[in-house]
């Protein structure tokens, strides 16, 4: 299977610390690279990740809080200094566009590439990006400002043709795609070899949901049902449940409840409050509800399986 990895650049909350950077991730899927959120310090974290700057083809911004977007104009500027020529697509709430336009005029008025802005309606669940191998859908979230998560889904692929069958029946390369599409094979003596004997099932499409920042949403599980990997706001442990409600964040128990209800494969906890010296309590409480829970950390690469 082709790589489908999540590179964690930052998983802290609003207050930067020496332990955690502001929110940012890179989604590596089938040879394409997409950034989700771009908090302050993202460029340094991107350097440490060894993901090439020029590989990033789009940036998805969840909402207009600084710890999720203050790094964007700096990243755009650096792309220009590195000689980028490919367009950079930015998906974000509509309110970012006039601010970004002003920053581009002031700081980046001689870019060698185009910045293409796509306004995201944070109130709707819809596809905002599609190509031949994947789709990206928005996930309406409940935060203090308009906010959307993003759901990355692989498109279904064709079955695998068995190499031993190609050799056994001398199947020409020109016919491989036809067989993957369902055709049988007829040998020179007229024997029909059924497609089921020639192929193996296609790999199951994989999916990743990014849900940060948000209050606990009892119905969110319906939108992320069955995803292989869920990243969910886990700013606090249960002792701060009242604070989570006030500031429109979630506890790790609440994140785990979403994962449990949605029957996801794995839960990735993140967006940790600076009040914690470590996140062991956050992890312990999540695992009590959903055992396959893990902590995000800067530099971590999590495979979507």
UniProtKB/TrEMBL annotation:
Binds 2 Zn(2+) ions. Its cofactor is Zn(2+). It catalyses: Endonucleolytic cleavage of RNA, removing extra 3' nucleotides from tRNA precursor, generating 3' termini of tRNAs. A 3'-hydroxy group is left at the tRNA terminus and a 5'-phosphoryl group is left at the trailer molecule. It comes from the Bacteria. InterPro entries: RibonucZ/Hydroxyglut_hydro, RNase_Z/BN. Its EC number is 3.1.26.11. The keyword Nuclease applies. It is an enzyme of class 3 (hydrolase). One of its GO terms (molecular function) is zinc ion binding. Zn(2+) 2 binds at residues 67-68, 213, 271. HAMAP family: RNase_Z_BN. Homodimer. This is Ribonuclease Z. It comes from Hallella multisaccharivorax DSM 17128.
């Amino acid at each position: 299977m082709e790589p489908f990895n999540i590179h964690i650049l930052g998983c802290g909350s609003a207050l930067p610390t020496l332990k955690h950077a502001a929110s940012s991730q890179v989604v590596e899927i089938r040879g394409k690279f997409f950034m989700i959120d771009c908090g302050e310090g993202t460029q340094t974290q991107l350097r440490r990740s060894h993901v090439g700057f020029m590989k990033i083809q789009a940036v998805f911004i969840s909402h207009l809080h600084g710890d999720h977007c203050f790094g964007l104009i700096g990243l755009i500027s650096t792309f220009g200094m590195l000689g980028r020529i490919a367009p950079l697509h930015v998906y974000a709430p509509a309110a970012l566009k006039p601010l970004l336009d002003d920053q581009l005029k002031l700081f980046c008025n001689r870019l060698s590439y185009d910045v293409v802005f796509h306004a995201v309606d944070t109130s709707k669940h819809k596809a905002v990006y599609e190509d031949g191998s994947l789709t990206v859908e928005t996930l309406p979230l409940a935060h203090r400002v308009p906010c959307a998560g993003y759901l990355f889904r692989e498109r279904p692929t064709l079955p695998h043709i068995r190499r031993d069958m190609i050799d056994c029946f001398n199947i020409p390369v020109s016919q491989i795609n036809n067989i993957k599409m369902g055709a049988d094979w007829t040998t020179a003596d007229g024997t029909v070899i059924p497609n089921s004997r020639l192929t193996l099932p296609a790999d199951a499409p994989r999916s990743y949901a990014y849900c940060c920042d948000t209050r606990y949403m009892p119905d969110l599980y319906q939108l992320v049902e069955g995803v292989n990997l869920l990243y969910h706001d886990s700013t606090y442990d249960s002792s701060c449940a009242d604070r989570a409600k006030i500031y429109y964040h979630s506890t790790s128990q609440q994140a785990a409840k979403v994962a449990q209800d949605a029957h996801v494969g794995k839960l990735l906890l993140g967006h940790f409050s600076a009040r914690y010296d470590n996140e062991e309590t956050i992890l312990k409480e999540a695992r009590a509800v959903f055992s396959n829970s893990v902590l995000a950390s800067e530099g971590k690469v999590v495979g979507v399986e």
